[in-house]
Amino acid sequence: YSSAASDVYKRQEKEQLMEIDLPVASKAPATAISNTVDILVTDAGYQMDGNPVGRLELENELNRFGNMADPPVLAIRANADTPYQNIVTLLDLLKQNQLKRINLITRPEE
Fold first, then answer.
1. Which one of 27, 90, 92, 110 has the minimum C-beta count within 10 Å?
2. Residue 58 and residue 44 in contact, taking contact as beta carbons nearer than 8 Å
3. C-alpha Rg value of the chain to the nearest Å
4. Residues 6+ away with beta carbon under 8 Å from 56
5. What is the pLDDT of residue 15?
6. What is the side-by-side strand order in the sheet with 36-42?
């Protein structure tokens, strides 16, 4: 193996596939949902409804939501400079807790 081929193999070995059932985007303005929790993913970690939370607190809250009969809709945003791994970690936690009511918040096209 060459060094470059070895690096490609190592990266492929670490890749994982995660199935996500995403809704279709609409150009219609979003309507407010009363039972919503805002989650911001940043390079420094996570915020829930504007409050910084550590990974353990995030896991505990998502577990609590997953055990609810009517869990809140999770509105997820990320900064442009957010490491992709932070987003993948959040999506993995959502999957583990069977939380499927999510909105991925993006800024409108200019």
1. 110
2. no
3. 17
4. none
5. 57
6. 51-53, 45-48, 36-42, 73-78, 102-104
**Tokens representing 87?**
């987003």
pLDDT recorded at residue 109: 61
CB 104 within 8 A of CB 76: yes
State how beta strands 36-42 and 51-53 pair.
Answer: unpaired
pLDDT (tens digit per residue) in 59-68: 999 999 999 9
| Region class of 9: left (phi > 0), else alpha (psi between -120 and 50), else beta | alpha
What pLDDT, on the 0 to 100 scale, is given for residue 74?
A: 97
CA angle 28, 49, 72 (to 5 degrees): 65
**CA–CA distance, 58 with 91 (Å, rounded to integer):** 12
Q: How high is the pLDDT of residue 46?
A: 96
